[in-house]
Structures are given as structure tokens and as C-alpha cells.
Design goal:
Blueprint lengths: L1 H7 L2 H17 L3 H15 L3 H29 L1
């Protein structure tokens, strides 16, 4: 949804998707990723797509690492 919204220039949809992802990441303790999602949400609301794209680039660089760390934590606690 985020990528599609960025491509279409749909700020409302982008803000909703970023907000949902922000909430999820905050709930699992991925605070840096949650902060980036907040920045993405704010950029979307301001229709600042250049900033949104730059922030999303940072998110993509971090999301796989966060996913891997969460999976490791889940395996440890199982």
C-alpha cells in the first residue's frame, strides 16, 4: 500500500498506511522504525512526496533487519 500510494501521489492512503505500520512497529518495540513511519505519515499529510520517498528509503533499509530480529526473538521465547 505504501509503495502504491507513493507512486500514485495519494497522500491520504499513504498517511493511513504509514500510521498503521507505525502502530504495529511501536507495539513490537521497533521504535526507530516506528519513528520513521511517523515521519512518513507527516510527510504524506503535508503532500511532501520527496520527503516521503526519502523516508521510505530509510524504512526499507531498516525493515528487514527489524523483521529478522523479531523472528530471532520469537524463536528464543518459544
Amino acid at each position: 500500500t505504501i509503495e502504491r500510494s507513493l507512486e500514485a501521489g495519494n497522500g491520504a492512503e499513504l498517511a493511513r498506511a504509514a500510521h498503521a505500520w507505525r502502530s504495529y512497529n511501536g507495539n513490537v518495540g521497533a521504535n526507530v522504525l516506528a519513528q520513521l513511519c511517523r515521519e512518513l505519515e507527516e510527510a504524506a499529510r503535508a503532500a511532501n512526496y520527496a520527503s516521503a520517498r526519502a523516508t521510505y528509503t530509510q524504512i526499507k533499509a531498516l525493515r528487514d533487519r527489524v523483521r529478522d530480529e523479531l523472528q530471532q526473538e520469537m524463536r528464543r521465547s518459544a
